[in-house]
Amino acid sequence: MPSATRGRHAFIALLLLAVTAVWGWTFVIVKDAVSNYGVMAFLALRFGLAALVMAPFARRLDRGAWRTGLGIGLVLGISYILQTVGIRHTTATNSGLITGLFVVFAPLWNHVIYGVRSRAVTWCQVGVSLVGLMLLTGGVAGEFSVGDLLTLGCAITFGLHIALLDRHSREHDPGSLAFVQLLASAALFILVWPLSEPLVLPAAGSVWAAIILCGIVATAVGFTAQTLAQRTLPAVRTALILSMEPVWAAFFGWALAGDHLGPPQYLGAVLMVAAAATANVWQPTVSREA
Q1: Where are the domains of the chain?
Q2: Position with higher pLDDT, 42 vs 178
């Protein structure tokens, strides 16, 4: 491999690693933001901004892209509602680790919807991740919170989103499909916003900062960096870098939010990250949106 190509690959890998760090950081940022501002309002502004940033990249908005993107975007929106409501009632660390299980659920959705046979290793990953989840949340002792349950629901629906996206993404221009998904999610949040929360803009500068960071960097730039990596780097290398997201979430939860894990929780976290990492390696088409 020429040195220029190696240098480009190294730059893209570092860029993607930085993006996964931002994704992990946003669990703390979002938890702080929605403690002071409404969930639907936050999501509407975040995804509205992200759709606006992605609009110039929507170059082929045909009927198929609209139809597919709207359907997949609604699933994405439901996933973010579950995740963001859930993070109000659990720690940033738990939210990041549990959300990372979406890579385990994606092949199961492929099996349910499209009849793609799940290999034995997939069921092993599911079992390991569930054991890890019980250890992390103390579920056996009755400590499984509402927030953990909602976040598990978001991991399941994120898995559905990835299965649908994997099936249909090759049929449409990626920029157009991404834009329609973000627009559909934003429309869902805008419709629900006045039904659940006051129609007011954020008063705190920290909430605006969170909206800008999440909308532009975590969603628009993050999506672009991931797409670039998947087109350039080997699939296994990309997948392993993406698997760092829950690790970053746990780190920032500890460093910034004061989250603490006991020995059983650490073991559970290791099992969940291991299940997600191996699912990524053996299912290299699995990707993350936003």
Answers
A1: 3-282
A2: 42
